Amino acid sequence: MKPHVVLSLATILLMAITGCGSTVAGQVVSPLYDPFKVGGMPAVTGPSGIRDNAPPTTGTVLNTDDGPVDHLALLAVNDIAEYWSQNYSPALPGEFIPVKRLVSYDSTDSSSPRICGGRTYEMVNAFYCPPMHLMAWDRGVMVPVGQKFFGDMSIAALMAHEYGHAVQRMADMMDRRTPSVVVELQADCLAGDYLRWVADGSSPRFTLDTGDGLNHVLAGVITIRDPLLTDDLESLLAQQEHGTALDRVGAFQMGFISGTSACKALDEAEVQKRRGDLPIMLDTDDGGQVQTGEVALDEDVLGMLMDDLGTIYSPSQAPTLSFDPGECENPQPGSPVAYCADSNTIAVDLPALQKFSAPADERRDLMLLQGDNTGISALTSRYALAVQKQNGLAIDTPTSALRTACLTGVAQRAMIDPSADRKLKLTAGDIDEAVSGLLVNGIVASNVDGATVPAGFTRIVAYRSGLEGDADLCYQRFA
Questions:
Q1: Nearest-CA neighbor of 244 among 260, 257, 265, 226?
Q2: Are 341 and 382 in contact (CB under 8 A)?
Q3: Backbone phi, then psi, for 417, in 5-degree steps?
Q4: Cis peptide leading into 3, omega within 30 of 0?
Q5: Whole-model pTM over 0.90
Q6: Do residues 163 and 262 both lie within one domain?
Q7: Per-residue pLDDT tens for 213-232?
Q8: Structural domain boundaries, residue 98
Q9: Residue 239 falls inside a structural domain
Q10: Does residue 158 contact residue 123 with C-beta atoms inside 8 Å?
Q11: Which Pfam families has this protein been placed in (predicted)?
Q12: What are the residues facing 338 on neighbouring strands?
């Protein structure tokens, strides 16, 4: 192993979104960064999905089998159309014209019809066809699998994204020169705008809780991220880029928090500003071979990480690393890493951490990321707790859980800097692994007791604050 190590290729794991830690109780005042708020709304767990008293569907779906999948998709289209009929003006120019041409198809059926000039057999997708002002969806795989793993509201979000493409064209938000990544992220943003309306309780058809329900929606957003680019793929996908997991979640959050005006303002400059220097393409070696960068998390690698974190955080007394999982008197439930405040030690259950960070076998269609930065970011968060303790800050509060995520983002940004002398460097896909971890288990946004905050949405906001800021911002924002 060379001193300079590149962390993992973004690998994927199909799984349900369930947090393994407890949640903390308490109150703070900042509405956006409150541990118990989601974009200013209370973070609550409750019913998510179709209302018992939802009105009957309206409109015609061509090629339908009249089954429950098409019923759900049509109900979502009805709801989204009602939202935009009420909210299109005056936020956007022009006239709102509902999408009335709707087509269902089965991607597993070789006789599935051509739609918008293309084959639909084996096309696991949902899409908007501009020339025909038409929406179509795959009832064979895309919708039922998404519904199974991420719930009814993930399908409403999927339809809202595709409907967003229709809204873009009505409002002249894009043209033929607009980069594809901007087009896609605008649609994600518009979907977030609609889902805020549902979460507010305004939808007559659906409900969405801002805890577990919204976590599942975000998980669905992550699954439709781009594959990692290589030199071979870059030219192929450059005109079809949809965005990384962080791009897509961030755009959705923009719409959810700030509404239609933020979506309208989302352009190429804004995308590049938010990305900064985050890598999106894998490196190649001198022979042109793609470096997957997969690193086995052993004692040597974790030792190098501790050295890097000491340089990044510059604590007055660096914590020590122990591979005795019983080091802490109060271990953190469900986590393979723990900070022992009394001894200033980070205790690692190495076999558990390796399992926690092992790339999963690739599955088709719906995926979540898991890889070595799942574990690297978790250990980094325990180091961030040590730094906070040395600064005289409480490390067992709701605020400290989010401050920990923010400080972890600061360190991860520093591990990307190509000009810095680091033993470990992050590469394409690693940040998305951390984002998935924040959503799935919340360890990176947990306090010294291992307690996280209810909403994955807010955990990701805190982590991104660190990616885009510095330690001083973390201390100010999560005071």
A1: 226
A2: no
A3: -50, 110
A4: no
A5: no
A6: yes
A7: 999 999 888 877 655 544 44
A8: 47-208+245-275
A9: no
A10: no
A11: Zn_peptidase
A12: 347
